[in-house]
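ok so I'm stuck.
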Amino acid sequence: MAEHTRSSITIEATPAEVMAVISDFDRYPEWTGEVKEAEVLARDERGRAEQVRLLLDAGAIKDEHTLAYRWEDADAVSWSLVRSRMLRSLDGSYRLAPVAGGKHTEVTYQLTVDVKIPMLGSIKRKAEKVIIDRALAGLKTRVEGGAGAP
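replied:
not stuck anymore, here's the structure
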């Protein structure tokens, strides 16, 4: 079984407000840091992204890849790799849990990355941790700062 990296953060917003930012792929380049381009390639009958092409620059990992998204419920989304030049697999998820009576949200981000080139496990885990920490910090800033946040 592949190892994964996981981290959580509490955001001062409702789960619905947090998920609205997570699901707005067109705006990812504005707040994620690593995502330079995002393009929704397919949507489900509810208008949610099913496949998204992302141009990623995360230091050790630079790639253009397509991810398939599964919207498990209103508070969870997961994804897996469809195609990539550099990655063998990329599986992740956001899980949202209401806290403080639903006024705040604990966001847990889990990520497993496997690259096609040889890479020490410790370096891979560090890259996963950097991706997760930056994504969670960017998400918190974006949600709490509103639509105009960087």
